[in-house]
Amino acid sequence: MYVQVIAVNERGLSIASTSNIEGALVQTVPSELVQLIRGADTSATQIQVIWSAPQNGGSSIISYQLDVLNASGSWIEVVGNSTGNYLGLSYTLTVGIVAGNTYQFRIRAYNKWGWGAYTSVSTSILAASVPSQVQNA
After folding, report:
1. How far is Cα of residue 21 from the mean position of the Cα atoms in its chain?
2. Residue 1 within any structural domain of the chain
3. 80 located within any domain
């Protein structure tokens, strides 16, 4: 489909613009990211979360905002919005981790059009190391 534009005012109609044969580029906020996953560097003292870049809405991603759910049920920003832009596709949280506790995260992306929607809350990520290799008895 081709588009032409005509302006109208009290004096009449303008001449139609040239046909747009390339289509329109619609730009929006970034799409919702795919679910966060537990990173291989997760241990009893740190939690690593990994994500994939979303569709950017036609504008480069400027930042991601990662939040963690605290024990009282409030979301706490870990990185990204008030802490400055963050463009990594993973993050390792090392402060306040208690071995054996579980943690939940959410993330969203930002471009020049604004913040995209948060992901669904991540599945609980346990602060624990991968078990060591079983030795012969």
Report:
1. 34
2. no
3. yes
CATH number of the domain encompassing residue 94: 2.60.40.10
d(CA 38, CA 122): 9
When divided into structural domains, the chain yields a total of 1
pTM listed for this prediction: 0.75
What is the distance, to the nearest Å, from the Cα of residue 11 to the centroid of all Cα atoms in its chain?
A: 49
Residue 7 lies in a domain: no
Distance CA 92, CA 60 (A): 24
Which of 125, 107, 104 is closest to 44 using CA atoms? Answer: 125
| Nearest Cα residue to 48 out of 76, 20, 88, 81 | 88
Tens-place pLDDT, residues 30-51: 999 888 999 999 999 999 999 9
Rounded Cα distance, 39 and 122, in Å: 13
Is residue 28, in this structure, part of any structural domain at all? Answer: no
Cα-based distances in Å from 111 to 23, 42, 56, 58: 22, 29, 7, 9
Q: What is the DSSP code (8-state) at residue 20?
A: B
Which structural domain range is residue 113 located in? 37-126
